Amino acid sequence: MKRIGIIIIGLFFLFACFGQQDSTTFNDTSDFIESSQKVKNIILMIGDGMGVTQIYAGITVNKSPLNIEKIKNIGFAKTYSASDYITDSGASGTAIATGHKTYNKAIGVDKDTVPVKSILEYAEDHGKATGLVATSYVTHATPASFISHQANRHDYEDIAADFLKTDIEVFIGGGLKHFNQRKDNLDMTEQLKENGYDVIMNRDSIPISNSDKIAGLIYKGHPPKYTKGRDEMLQICSLKAIETLNRNNNGFFLMIEASEIDWGGHDNDTEYIVDELLDFDRVVGKVLDFAEKDGNTLVIITADHETGGMGLNGGDIAKGKINAKYTTSDHSGVMVPVFAFGPGSDNFRGIYENTELFIKMMNAFGFSED
Ligand code: MG
Ligand code: ZN
Predict the structure, then answer these.
(1) Which of 226, 259, 320, 336 could be cross-linked to 279 through a Cys-Cys bond (beta carbons 3.0 to 4.6 Å apart)?
(2) Domain range for residue 46?
(3) In angstroms, what is the span from residue 331 Cα to ligand 2's centroid?
């Protein structure tokens, strides 16, 4: 009997060991299996020109951890366009929005100028509410890539007209002049009102709107810098967009852009970059709070490209000081980070093309391409 007992105990250990081995193997394998859980909402946050250096500049100056540092699922996207090693925001916005590499200056069209459908348009077709919020013209390259189809990003008035061809629920930013001071003399704010939008032309009215459709054209041109009077505009408008879109039982797609990190990069202006980065990160914090409570929202934070070829040649952690240097006043060709939070966020690990972001968002929503 003793021997049988020892054999049984022996077998038990063997099974325990194999069991252990098995579960270890399974965990390793799971890294390579994309999770297939469908999400209700996607909030895509784009820091224009936000490379790893810009983020670390913000981390250093802030002296305490940024909200973005809470995120565990991190990847990198390759940003080159169909025409250039160094992309512009039109080609990279289009890549993220539609899954097509295209030429620099393109908006929502492929390399042969054929219109290609965006994740926002797919979301509309599937009964989701959609929105765009930016600290630039709403007609500027990044937001435009999600809603417009134009051969040239500088055809702002044509891009404005494209906003009237969709069922987008909320768009907030600058660029009022492209809607109401046009060469064709049309006042598109009147058409927006006819289409049921609460057309808001000053930022103080954004928080008090109860409309399900908001056209927030709150600056004639671009919004100013954070430190020159824009203040918490991005946060206020992003939270209003989330509140409004979240009334839809089918869920929503929202793109939020911190447009001016890029402009600080073009100016090689370190303070401008850091102020805009920290403003963006505070909005990231609010968005993560919403997503955490909601539990059915995927948040993706990335950039369309890096700007400035920014490097940190020195700094002081304790004093929150950096010594930044730049290799260009244009964009650079480096990969950009992708941070993902919420259900399905593990699918965003690794190194991939920026066009994969479109595919990953389509998969997260459970959509298939037309
Ligand atoms: Mg932009
Ligand atoms: Zn730029």
Answers:
(1) 226
(2) 38-167+228-365
(3) 6
- 21 CA distance to ligand 2 middle (Å): 51
Return mean pLDDT, the chain. 93
pTM of the model: 0.91
Closest listed ligand to the CA of 143: 1
List helix spans (H) across 107-260. Answer: 119-125, 141-144, 156-163, 177-180, 188-194, 233-245
Helices of type H across the chain: 2-30, 52-62, 89-98, 119-125, 141-144, 156-163, 177-180, 188-194, 233-245, 261-266, 270-294, 355-365
89 is catalytic: yes
Residue type, 16: A
User: Given 64, 81, 83, 89, which residue is catalytic?
Assistant: 89
Answer whether residue 52 is part of any domain.
Answer: yes
- Terminal alpha carbon distance of the chain: 69
| Mean pLDDT, residues 335-349 taken together | 98
How many domains, in total, are found in the chain? 1
Q: Is 97 among the domain residues?
A: yes
Q: Which residues lie below 8 Å from residue 167, measured CB to CB, with a gap of 6+?
A: 124, 130
The answer as to whether 250 is a domain residue is: yes
Residue ranges near ligand 1 (ion) with Cβ within 5 Å? 48, 89, 142, 259
pLDDT band at 3 (very low <50, low <70, confident <90, very high): low
Task: Assess if residue 136 is contained within a domain.
Answer: yes
Confidence bin at 35 (pLDDT 50/70/90): low
Express each pLDDT in 104-116 by its tens digit: 999 999 999 999 9
Ligand 1 centroid–CA 211 distance in Å is 27
**What's 157's domain CATH number?**
3.40.720.10
132-180 pLDDT, tens per residue? 999 999 999 999 999 999 999 999 999 999 999 999 999 999 999 999 9
Determine the distance separating the centroid of ligand 1 and the alpha carbon of 135, expressed in angstroms. 9
